[in-house]
Amino acid sequence: MDSSSNLNPVREDNSEEYRVPREATASAFSARPLRPPSTNSSDKYSPVEWSSYFDKEEDISVPGSNDVFHVYMAGTEGPVVFCLHGGGYSGLSFSVAANQIKEKARVVAMDLRGHGKSVTENELDLSIETMCNDVSAVVKELYGDSPPAIVLVGHSMGGSVAVHVAANKTLPSLAGLVVVDVVEGTAIASLIHMQKILANRMQHFPSVEKAVEYSVRGGSLRNLDSARVSVPSTLKYDDSKQCYVYRTRLDETEQYWRGWYEGLSDKFLSSPVPKILLLAGTDRLDRALTIGQMQGKFQMVVVRHTGHAIQEDVPDEFANLVTGFISRNRIGPHGVEIPGLLRRSQPKP
Predict the structure, then answer these.
(1) Cα 232 from Cα 31, distance rounded (Å)
(2) pTM metric for this prediction
(3) In terms of C-beta density within 10 A (0-12 exposed, 13-18 middle, 19 or more buried), how is residue 111 classed?
(4) Fewer CB within 10 Å: N-end or C-end of the chain?
(5) Is 156 a catalytic residue?
(6) Residue 142 neighbours by CB under 8 Å, 6+ apart
(7) Following DSSP, what letter does each residue of 246-290 receive, concatenated?
(8) Out of 156, 160, 215, 220, which one is annotated catalytic?
(9) Nearest to 138 by CA among 101, 165, 102, 105
(10) Residue 239, by phi and psi: left (phi above 0), alpha (psi -120 to 50) or beta?
């Protein structure tokens, strides 16, 4: 694939060069105890518990259904940074960044249906409408009729969900939108290659450690700390094959892919909240976004030296971008105090 595919939804799990394992489920992960530091190669790639970064996890049941969505939570004060992961990832994709964001805001990272520890009646219904309804239902169950200020953060497929939720105005307290490495034109153009990319991934892993190693050495993730906590939740153990496989059956959801991205640029531009687009490369803007950016309708930041999963590859920079965005737009009851960044409502001494 060409370099522009870096941002592509198709590259949600992009790593074809190196062949090692990378699939296991949350249940397999949670059964593994923490291991002491070691120079052993296997220990280098050993799983790290979610509790190293988040404060708690919860299962959110949706009334009138058998759907139960898993969320990870961190922080106690400030607006809620509600994170939506990309296809094939999980809420733990935001782990390392959440550990820093929680000093300034609350973080909620949700496992979308068919992903992570969430369990739903139809695991393959990844239509944009269904996923948007899932997000609204989870927010409703968490906060009732008086939700706090919410900043939606979405990566790749999760970015399209965030944009649609914002454009549909289903969250009354929505105060900001952060979209990570997804642009309509590039995404749609890449869909023709997605099945091939999924098929070319390593499909079976003898251990969770091998899956973590595959993700880092294969290039889909560039930060080992993040991979050790996020990758295990993208896998499940297959008893019949006696190995780990991918938990999410992305290859069986093709009928929904185009719906994730068609009209995304216009919906993003029309979303009635402050918004920022974080990109891993400059070749991603389509015509509508280029014009909108020139007109100052949104902020754009190109994050250098990173792959598609910006929040995992450079979590510190990602966290600073999110908290800086919250501060500049004074989101929350008092905004977020960032040292050296003066709020407009405060006169200089």
Answers:
(1) 11
(2) 0.84
(3) buried
(4) C
(5) yes
(6) 60, 71, 108
(7) ESS-GGG-HHHHHHHHTTHHHHHHH-SS-EEEEES-GGG--HHHH
(8) 156
(9) 165
(10) alpha
Three-state secondary-structure class, residue 168: helix
Summary count for the chain: helices (H), strands (E)? 13, 10
3-state SS of 121-146 is CCCCCCCHHHHHHHHHHHHHHHHCCC
89-92 long-range Cβ contacts below 8 angstroms, 24+ apart: 89/12, 89/13, 89/115, 89/155, 89/156, 89/158, 89/230, 89/234, 89/309, 90/26, 90/115, 90/116, 90/117, 90/230, 90/233, 90/234, 91/116, 91/233, 92/50, 92/116, 92/229, 92/230, 92/233
Tens digit of pLDDT at every position of the chain (349 positions): 333 333 333 334 443 334 333 333 333 333 333 333 434 557 899 999 999 999 999 999 999 999 999 999 999 999 999 999 999 999 999 999 999 999 999 999 999 999 999 999 999 999 999 999 999 999 999 999 889 999 999 999 999 999 999 999 999 999 999 999 999 988 999 999 999 999 999 999 999 999 999 999 988 999 999 999 999 999 999 999 999 999 999 999 999 999 999 999 999 999 999 999 999 976 667 888 989 989 999 999 999 889 999 999 999 999 999 999 999 999 975 455 444 444 443 433 3
Element (H, E) at 312: helix 310-313
Q: Structure tokens of 117?
A: 């520890």
Residue recorded with tokens 């994050």? 303
Placement of tokens 């891993």 in the chain: 280
Structure-token pair, residue 162: 């965030």
Strands 68-74 and 56-61: antiparallel
Q: Report the distance separating Cα 196 and Cα 179, nearest Å.
A: 26
- 221 is written with which tokens? 């993730």
Instruction: Return the structure tokens found at 157.
Output: 């497929």
Alpha helices in 9-62 (DSSP H): 26-30, 41-44
At the second CATH level, the architecture of 3-328 is 3-Layer(aba) Sandwich (3.40)
CB-CB contact of 99 with 171 (8 Å):
no
Catalytic residue among 181, 207, 265, 313: 181
